[in-house]
Amino acid sequence: MATLLDIGVSALINTLSAIVFLLAFALLRIQPINDRVYFPKWYVSGSRTSPRRSGNFVGKFVNLNARTYLTFLNWMPQALRMSEAEIISHAGLDSAAFLRIYVLGMKIFVPITIIALLVLIPVNLSNGTLSFLKKDLVMSNIDKLSLSNVRPKSVRFFFHIGLEYLFTVWTCLMLYKEYDYVASMRLKFLASQSRRPEQFTVVVQNVTHPPGKSISDSVDHYFQTNHPDQYLCHQGVYNANKFAKLVKKRDRLQNWLDYYQLKYKRHPNKRPTTKKGFSGLWGETVDSINYYGQQVKELERKMTLERQKTIRDPKFVLPVAFVSFKSRWGAAVCAQTQQSRNPTCWLTNWAPEPRDVYWRNLSIPFFSLRIRRLVISLLVFALVFFYMIPITFVQSLANLEGLVKVVPFLRPVIETKLIKSFLQGFLPGLALKIFLYILPAILMFMSKIEGYISLSMLERRTAAKYYFFMLVNVFLGSIVTGTAFQQLNAFLHQSPTQIPRTIGISIPMKATFFITYIMIDGWAGIASEILRLKPLIIFHLKNMFLVKTERDRDMAMDPPRIDFPETLPSLQLYYLLGLVYAVVTPILLPFILVFFSFAYLVYRHQIINVYNQKYESGAAFWPHVHTRIIAGLIISQLLLLGLLSTKKAANSTPFLVALPILTIAFHRYCKHRFEPAFRKFPLEEAMAKDIADRISEPDLNLRVYLEDAYLHPIFHSVEVDKEELMEVQVNEHETPIPDPITSLSNVYGYHPENPQHHTCELGAKP
Amino acid sequence: MATLLDIGVSALINTLSAIVFLLAFALLRIQPINDRVYFPKWYVSGSRTSPRRSGNFVGKFVNLNARTYLTFLNWMPQALRMSEAEIISHAGLDSAAFLRIYVLGMKIFVPITIIALLVLIPVNLSNGTLSFLKKDLVMSNIDKLSLSNVRPKSVRFFFHIGLEYLFTVWTCLMLYKEYDYVASMRLKFLASQSRRPEQFTVVVQNVTHPPGKSISDSVDHYFQTNHPDQYLCHQGVYNANKFAKLVKKRDRLQNWLDYYQLKYKRHPNKRPTTKKGFSGLWGETVDSINYYGQQVKELERKMTLERQKTIRDPKFVLPVAFVSFKSRWGAAVCAQTQQSRNPTCWLTNWAPEPRDVYWRNLSIPFFSLRIRRLVISLLVFALVFFYMIPITFVQSLANLEGLVKVVPFLRPVIETKLIKSFLQGFLPGLALKIFLYILPAILMFMSKIEGYISLSMLERRTAAKYYFFMLVNVFLGSIVTGTAFQQLNAFLHQSPTQIPRTIGISIPMKATFFITYIMIDGWAGIASEILRLKPLIIFHLKNMFLVKTERDRDMAMDPPRIDFPETLPSLQLYYLLGLVYAVVTPILLPFILVFFSFAYLVYRHQIINVYNQKYESGAAFWPHVHTRIIAGLIISQLLLLGLLSTKKAANSTPFLVALPILTIAFHRYCKHRFEPAFRKFPLEEAMAKDIADRISEPDLNLRVYLEDAYLHPIFHSVEVDKEELMEVQVNEHETPIPDPITSLSNVYGYHPENPQHHTCELGAKP
User: Fold this and answer.
1) What range does the record give for the signal peptide (chains A, B) (predicted)?
2) What is the pLDDT of residue A589?
3) Distance (Å, rounded) from C-alpha B80 to C-alpha B86?
């Protein structure tokens, strides 16, 4: 058991490392050369195209303005200055709602911390007289401050039970208010949004079609029959594998062409040549620019043909369609109702926004989908509880003896004492480290197999899996000894009332561990998040070796987005820790508070300056956040119940039984009250927006607006690149600075401003 | 442990009692005097108005045709003769689907019985040689035929596991086919139905209205805004308590009037008189007919005023409305979508058919509803597990000593030895008997508090509660000793893997008990169902003392309906027993088979001749039936798992773990595949019916058709009775024979044939 002093030392170390990170960040961020690493969001949003710089050449790379060094912590007030409304318009609702999670954490835990510390520390210190308090606070084992210090059968447990009630009520109140606020924020956001394709569009899966009829005709006929007044048009989804191969080949050749053109530009006196054979190693020597230019042209001709074929030939059409309606009302109706008498066919759902569509999963048949979900849930269960088995196996292989056998010539090096002890400490953990590093990717892969059709949904599913993993392997795994599998086995052979006891009894003992965990993973981890060391290094490496044009530099910038699948679960773990320890070892709470407020600052800064979201789901993750905080609440209640029952507090324990039931009732109420706002779109809202639209733009041609919104991005990219290519060929000696919005559109095939930009003949339009 | 011989004796007794019931039934049913007891359905449907009779006076009461006595069992083939389509048109889809449950039982259990008996009996008989088989079959303890006879660690358990797989697959296959069949039956039924008000109507609960505006105006405005093309009209719901009181008083006075009129008719020379004071005991003496006639007239004038006031005055309007649309499509859209941005307001659902509405629950606010459901589920839990506590308390009071104290003058009688022993055997059980008798009523009362708005839903919820009660107290209660509360306590202190073992191990030992249970509750119970002894006695008592007119005689007939809340759960219990014992003690299966086929015959007869359904839900209970059979399947798998693990069949047990998982996956698939057909109404179907309607009746005035369909029946009843009254007054000396349909309509306020019949001015119509 650690004393408060030990924890103080650990806190000092972690605070220092966090401060070092922050100092490094403060110094690095004001260097113009790093501007694209620390402020990419401003480049993407187009308000900055080159770093702020001092006049001379050196000033291009290093900040020479001494005054700015004095105010090196000024990013903090800057981060706080932007209002919530500005954040929503700057970074989207997802980011703003993400920040609300931290605010909610502070709202919940500030009063809890104050009350818990004021009431419980005196109660828990066994002799309870204040004269000894000071000495105890410094010297005592941290357990002295926790519930385990209270003698069995004590009446003092009524303090703990009372506070658990108080904290539950407070948490629920805050959760309710926040859910209400976020739901209204979402509705306001959706209402204030300008016209967007997804507001009019529904994705229809499992389209059936009679043998003689094309899918496109069936869709047209079906919706003209069943939604005669509202149906506008539809966009088929094509199997573009063959076309995608051509695009890939074209991109490769284009790269070569660019390379040789650049080379020629630098040395205009020598035209580059190349060999026609395999990898340019042999064969006839030709002029490179001409050769690749011709090849690219040839390929693009082929691509145009293939594109026409893919879109026109019914056998490339998949049994899925994006069906658009004349009004938001029509789309809302279609998305929320059952269409066919066979509920596995003609399944309608709101279309994700075009950037958010995960194209590969669109055409999975219903039956296959059910099987996939079953298999994946079994696999996730196995992964969570049995992941140690393969890792132990790999570890047993990757030991020193095995290494020596594989690389015998390294034997002298390996057997050096220093290196040997390093390797022995390092190798066994390696397999586990690698596994934990790739775990989010594995979970994302699993979610993709499950067949969800939008990126946002995939991320939410991954987050759910990751939370389950953390709950079992980090939270329970730290409390109960043994692997998750052993725990599972033990729990299966214990009675349901015994399990909370087994866990509850070790809860107070692990407080020190979790305090350290919070400081390392929370404090130092967040500080390293703001430093962005890895992207910084990668950006400069790319800048040195790969970047040829400004466009390349923008590509190298690669602004990240909020990593929901990893961030949300770890956030929820902090909530769980806070709620569990609130009445057991309240001394843990200030550490969580520091985490919440520090992380809030950092993420606010990152959202304003760094992150660039790939999609906008309108805070669709909030119901999950709410549910998991409730789950944390219930876990904390059950564990307190278990802990108290080991304390023989038989008189007081029954009072706690009502809490989980009431909490579940509260959750069900909230679910009914708020969740529809996140899953459905009320007709009232849809109609109001339709009417407003009709008044402001009575003669809008919606069909043209929606025409290509849901065409697979690969088809868009061709058109755009073709034009760009022509542009490059026309003014060959000017380096065009592309608008970042446009270049993004290339990637995602999304053109909110000018959807009519690329008109193309589609075979399947009514 | 009972031998086969014991069981044979028990079977003989129960078969004999069943045969006695059947004989009595066969004799009683052909007596003309009982015609209205055994064939009320034909009277209700209007195809029979008086009993078939032989010519003379005696023939009016007793069947003198000797030939009919010879064919006294001919109701069986008669019951089978009607085809399913005829049953649907004769008695509705609910009844037809109810019979399918028995057919499904036979389909599932006939092959299972044959295979289980052929394979498992030889396997279970330990010596396994066929020479001893015959002797064993007669003499052996019934346990010899069950799984418990197999030695621990035997490889023979693979037979049981294999068969469990086979039976599960077979059951799932049958369930799937049946679900498919019933779902398509339902859709066909809905499609073939003629126009009905509920197809166009949606019930809207939790209507909000701004302070200055009436509810009726708000509803109009809301739906005219949000469903401008589809909205037709709406019907408010009124708080008619005051009006209902007047109706009650009028009915009482009307009864007196009728009584005196009849009296006068019998003795035309003496006009009856009455006293005006309290209970007719003192006060001025007046002519009865004139006095009551005047009073009734006066009251009816008041009622007309009150009626106008109730309907016109906005303060009597409840925040609920039945909103009707111009097409089925419009109603389907409104029922399936979310209307308001606050998901607790403007809640829309399909309106139940007018007969099916439970008016009292219509206006419960959303929040109160959530609280009610929570409280009731806690109460049901308490009722199921702790119901023995109050009963034991009452039992301890109601013993002989207590009785003697209350009625000391009966002491000599009570202390007679014979009577004393009878009372001692009888009294302790009395409280329990009374409780079990009123249990369905208690559960129905609880369901009503839960706030469901249709009778069919109330009955389904009651059935669910009753099934839970039976599962815990009949099934588990018989297997594990002790009260449900003791079991619960024991289970809470056992590990999840221990519970199936504890139960599993006593499963084979209880086979005899359940065989007896099936014979008493199933065989003899069903035979007594067809005899209808209680209604027979009540009918004749009423006929002797109360019946004055033919209309009274029809009222006394009181045709019952299928008692879903009790029948469905006990049926599902038989499924559970069959599935659990299929591999454990297969000798139980033939008894279940006999039950299913016998009950099928009896209920077919009853549905054709006796039952008259109060509402038609379109087999909406089928998903529940399906779910509970699946639950039975999973329980049987878990118990087999537990039983085998006590047999140390460690090699074979793991093979069973996959079964529950696969069964749950199957269930989830079925739920997605079929349940929407029972909960929603596909737009495709709605549109098809709309188009067909538009072609066949292009100039239908739907508004007139729907006008009063959803007016509270109490308002209808007045109009009808008023007219009837006039009719009575006009042709005073003729006894009118009312059409049973009309008299039913009076009760339920439902006029499918002539809804324009009673036009009335409503204040709140657009």
Assistant:
1) none
2) 92
3) 11
